[in-house]
Amino acid sequence: MNKARFVPLLTDAPLSFLAMLVISGMALSLNFANPVFAQDEQGSAPAPIPTVTVCPDGGYENLCTIAQMEKAISLTPNSMLLLSKQCLYQTEARCWVNASGTISSMERGGPVIWQHMLLAPNDGPATEMVVLAELDGKPVPMLVAAAQTEGWFLAPDIAANSDSGVLIHLPGRTGGNGAGNADILVRRTKAGWSHIDLTTWFDEINAMLPLGFELQSGINFNFREMHASSPVWRAADGHCCPTGGTVQIDFTIDTTDQLIVTGLAFDETKPVGSTIYLPEKQQNSEQSAPNPK
To answer: Which backbone phi and psi does 115 adopt, to 5 degrees?
Structure first.
């Protein structure tokens, strides 16, 4: 039996989607590495600290810095010509270009190039990486963002594109059984690039859910409609297996680059029995062999 719970909000939505576009802009990446997204003089929120999994020396989690990773990204004219064939990230790890492209019809800012790579470090698991740079008319493109994940990334989706601003979403997931979010949402306005915070609103949503229920990861975003959905975990659930139901979330983006919840509907799932976990496959050949006639 399922029961939908609608959670009223006490405050009005701070911005409509159209109002958000007036202040929106563009960019795309995974974990942010570019100083463009550091805290500015006006005190805007800093970007999340990115994770460098595969270092320029080819090692896995060798404690290299973001600056070292960025320095190893080649944005020369020759690299632009070989965008579909040659990795922009100069690393001793093996590297293949999975996909690349140019976002040329931008209403705000110059064309943007992106490259999606697969890295194979010397001593660790395969890792995906994305680089995004703007062709702003200078001899060397401006690095907008670069990041890595042991999960996966999809190609960029242009959620909004107008003279008032461009909004780009890069869907992604982290590695592991929890399939955590590695999504990136960025926008470009006349003022430049900004990164939308997709992490701090978890606390806001969990505070709205009934006691004993929470979000952990795996939110599915639709930034064209300003809507998201997610499974809901009970307190006793394993990270792999939520049993609490689903939640539907409406939101907007405020002027501080934060997601603000404007509506929430929780559809609780009532278990009809206990969760049964299948045993591991028997490795004993005698147990797996057919019975004699």
So the answer is: -140, 135
